[in-house]
Design a protein that fits this description.
This protein is about 40% helix and about 10% strand. By secondary structure, it is mainly α. It has 2 domains: about 240 residues, no CATH class; about 100 residues, no CATH class.
């Protein structure tokens, strides 16, 4: 079970979370059962067929489909790739894959049955060790704790790779599909655009580029045992007050920004648009423009790099408004207007 790191959520117009659930194909479990391509198909529309007719690529594809079904049937929180990696390192898997091209039909049927049995055992008995599959890092970047402050002070994690999620913002934990609202702020590592993937995960190798200096939450991750996650969730999270404890002027500016541009104010302004229409929409645009001006003005006054604004002030209203199904469009003359978010 991965740790409950926080990531941005999206709220549908009806207030429910957009969980992206879709029906899944159920793989025929019995290895002895014959399947014709005209009668059955996998989730991608390709025929499953009879094991004796599969090449190595079809064997692997159908094996992965079977693993996915095992996870769904058991309602397990273990990522597919985690089980996949564990099995790929076994002698049984390697032996079957290497000998498959030269097997006859009877041998392939027996080998397929053995692979199914071994996969079911592996899904039940996850080895208590990290296989570095990268799935925890793909499910969300870590939220920082007080203990991580030294990593920042010593420059081992760059401050421009941090973002503040402010009180009231809708977020989602990898541990649960439902969106919830933050009761207090969190600071976390950035995620790659349009994904949940941690910015420090090297996608091509599934390796962490700051592994030696990874945050506390990353060190405690264990997809096979959630006890460490539950214990860590009870410990104090890092806040901007901890980071800027000796910069009172900046803390005052952050407090002023919260007073005038809290997420609650954005939420209320959007609600008024739904109730009052065009006049309220103009006021919402003015609020978005004001928040943008506030960020830019103090960035210039305090010589704050723009890459650090998401840490100091949290995500901008322009970045948050798509949560409500809207986006800001800037006209040629510089005026802003609200339009539906076509990316939803």
């Amino acid at each position: 079970m991965p740790l409950p790191s926080i990531r941005m959520g999206r709220v549908e117009d009806n207030g429910n979370c957009n969980c992206g659930l879709s029906p899944t194909h159920t793989f025929l479990q019995g290895a002895e059962t014959l399947m014709s391509s005209s009668e059955h198909g996998n989730a991608q529309g390709n025929p499953v067929g009879y094991p004796a007719d599969w090449d190595t690529r079809a064997l692997r594809r159908n094996w992965l489909d079977h693993l996915q079904d095992l996870i769904e049937e058991q309602e397990a929180s273990i990522p597919l790739k985690r089980i996949e990696y564990q099995l790929e390192q076994s002698t049984v898997y390697h032996d079957i894959m290497q000998r498959w091209p030269k097997m006859d039909g009877s041998q392939r049927l027996k080998a397929w049955k053995l692979l199914l049995e071994y996969s079911e055992q592996a899904a039940r008995d996850i080895l208590p060790t990290c296989v570095q599959c990268g799935e925890c890092c793909r499910r969300g970047s870590p939220t920082l704790h007080i203990e991580d402050l030294e990593l920042l002070k010593e420059g081992r994690i760059s401050w421009d790779q941090l973002v503040t999620l402010r009180q009231g913002e809708p977020v989602r934990s990898p541990l649960q599909p439902k969106i919830f609202f933050l009761l207090d702020e969190r600071i976390k590592l950035r995620e790659k655009p349009e994904t949940q993937e941690c910015v420090f995960l090297e996608s091509s190798t599934d390796r962490c580029s700051i592994y030696t200096d990874r945050p506390l939450q990353c060190r405690a991750q264990a997809c096979w045992d959630g006890s460490a996650a539950k214990q860590l969730a009870e410990q104090a999270y890092l806040t901007r007050r901890d980071l800027f404890a000796h910069v009172e002027l900046l803390l005052d500016v952050i407090a002023k920004h919260h007073e005038r541009c809290s997420f609650a104010k954005l939420q209320e302004a959007v609600k008024r648009v739904e109730q009052d229409g065009e006049n309220a929409a103009h006021k919402l645009v003015e609020l978005l423009a004001y928040e943008d001006h506030f960020r830019n003005f103090f960035s210039e006054q305090f010589n704050i790099p723009r890459d650090n604004l998401d840490l100091i002030f949290g995500r901008s209203f322009a970045e948050l408004v798509p949560i409500f199904g809207l986006q800001v469009q800037v006209e040629a003359d510089g005026r802003r207007r609200l339009v539906p978010d076509r990316a939803r």
